[in-house]
Amino acid sequence: QNELYRAGMFHHCLPVVTTDPRKLEEQAKGAMKPTAYNYVAGGAGERATMDANRLAFRQWKLVPRMLRPTTHRDLTIKLFGETYESPILMAPIGVQTIFHKDKETGLSEVCSEIGVPYVLSTASSSSIEEVAKANGKGPRWYQLYWPQDDDVTISLLKRAKANGYKVLVVTLDTWALAWRPADLDGAYIPFMKGVGNRNGFADPVFREKFRKKFNAEPEERVTEASEEWIGDVFSGAAHSSDEIALLKKHWDGPIVLKGIQHPEDAKLAVEHGCDGIVVSNHGGRQLDGAVGSLEMLPEIVEAVGDKLTVIFDSGIRTGVDVIKALSLGAKAVFVGRPAIYGLAIGGKQGAKQVLQGILADVDQSMGLAGIVNIAGCNRSMLRRYAKRA
Ligand code: FNR
């Protein structure tokens, strides 16, 4: 982290990707096809929840401490018994081939280089096996869009387990894709062309069932195969909490529920024996008009923080945002859109620069705030200066 800072400060050696979080999206817009840009930058409805996600961060301010030696700082965290070098994880983001040809394999490779755990989406354009190979010895988790067909679910879990994915992240908020006005061709057309379904198409159980029904391989009937896959994964029917038992039966590692916003749902996760939750509203891409994600974090930590691991996402743009979320009780955060903007601008190296930039910002800002390690990020560092939005 320090290296990046020194190179810029003293030698004016700046990264290809802008380090100004406000300009990053603009730079990415210039680098992408409008459909791809709309897919990543777009949100549900009038984007009120996207706005609320950012506003929630502005309502908390850090109160720095002085006269503390902070030269040596430690960003490591422990999650589910494993030590990670970084408090940020790469969020699961689907269809990465539409942003850059480096796609999931490239991004997971650079995440491994900088010690950022990579969370692979079910809706990926590279398969579970390809990403495991590219990620090598890097830490990786698997995100499940939970199919209706239990055989397919079990097959995905088996493949993830066999390929070294340590934690299962089950996304609950996207059993149907929301209406995203800017995005009606950005995501859906690539999905329908099969680009977003390569991981699904690679699944032996899905293939077998498809063959039986259509007497063809998925690649020969891409439209039908896409419809089958989307129909199963984004079926329009939500699973119930009782069905978590099936996941527990077929996954012997930690299970984390993603998309939790209500403290009562966080309690349900505890009751059903889950190991963690991600407090997230999918970056404002699902229910528009929903509360800013950070708004709910303190209440949720209060309700279940001592019973399971609380992770946070939706709206993280800077290192200071990371420190705020950790100080409100999250044990780690997912970074989503910023890394994808980096990927679009400069391929895997661009994404790497964005993630390194955020880590460098966490490191530097912790030092300036008088914090030396992640445990030092706690409520005593924060004041709320505005009433709830
Ligand atoms: C997502 N997200 C997401 N989540 C998930 O569980 N599986 C997925 O496949 C995807 N795909 C996806 C695509 C794109 C383009 C975006 C922007 C987001 C949600 C993601 O994991 C995370 O919750 C959000 O990105 C957090 O919001 P911000 O901080 O990126 O605005």
From TrEMBL:
Keyword Ligase annotated: no
Keyword match Oxidoreductase: yes
Cofactor: FMN
PROSITE patterns, per database record: FMN_HYDROXY_ACID_DH_1 (PS00557), FMN_HYDROXY_ACID_DH_2 (PS51349)
Domain spans labelled FMN hydroxy acid dehydrogenase: 13-387
GO function term, MF aspect, one: oxidoreductase activity
Ligand binding (FMN): 92-94, 121, 143, 171, 258, 280, 313-317, 336-337
Xref: Pfam families: FMN_dh (PF01070)
Stored SUPFAM superfamilies: FMN-linked oxidoreductases
Keywords (A to Z) from UniProt: Flavoprotein, FMN, Oxidoreductase
Residues of the active site: 282 (proton acceptor)
Database matches in InterPro entries: Aldolase_TIM, Alpha-hydoxy_acid_DH_FMN, FMN-dep_DH, FMN_HAD, FMN_hydac_DH_AS, LMO_FMN
Record-listed glyoxylate binding positions: 39, 145, 180, 282, 285
Record-stated family: Belongs to the FMN-dependent alpha-hydroxy acid dehydrogenase family.
Protein name per UniProt: Oxidoreductase
Species annotation: Mollisia scopiformis
